[in-house]
Amino acid sequence: MINRMWFVMAVLLVSSVAFAGDVTGSASGGYAVVWLEGALPRSVPPPMSIAQRDVRFAPDFAIVVAGQRVEFPNDDNVAHNVYSGSATKQLNLGVYEKGESRSVVFDQPGLVQLHCWLHKRMSADIIVVPNRFYADARAGAFRIAGVPAGSYRLVAMRLDGTRNIKKIIVPATGEIAAAF
Fold first, then answer.
1. Would the N or C end of the chain have less CB density within 10 A of its end CB?
2. Is the domain of 30 the same as that of 58?
3. Model's pTM, two decimal places?
């Protein structure tokens, strides 16, 4: 009985990988990120880092999966204060010196614009996506690989928060193309 259960689980795991397609396409007009919404597996990547260096955020653009922790180390020779008044995530990490770090978990999809209260020219954008099925579309072309077959909403977002949504059906093998 137990051996049969392991066999069935192995078959389901292999078949879920075998029945996956790709979403490809193009995004013009300033779209930054595309992602899928629907019944998809969820997993949270390990923490990532957005440093303060040379009186800038490095990097100044990031894509974060909902639930992912972001570290904000101060690698600069001056104090900084990371904050955001964005509807997606409001935060104020306080003033902290070189060598110190703060962290935040981003739990809701959407746009988060970061700033430093002490250095007005410092800014960065984070787009929080709901799952690992996303692609950076700033170069125009995108590919989301290994998507389980099914019906989804394909969302494209600009850095001003504007969204465009298309309904798509991902095949069990091959790819589907979409353009924004």
1. N
2. no
3. 0.87
